[in-house]
Amino acid sequence: MCRIPGKFRRRVWMSEGDLVLVTPWDFQPSKGDIEHRYTKEEVRKLIAMNVVPQEFLESIGAL
Question: Where would I find the beta strands (DSSP E) of the chain?
């Protein structure tokens, strides 16, 4: 479970299947804050750089 900080609530639309960067809370590691939502172009670059395997994204339905 993650919290969407106020800076994202009205500026960035998030939907199921989006690839996001999460920072876990120190006091409750099962929860965290969303730091960044990757655009489709950024996801393509991450795949090209082999940071995120394409098979992982296909398995969660992000592509």
Answer: 2-3, 20-24, 32-37
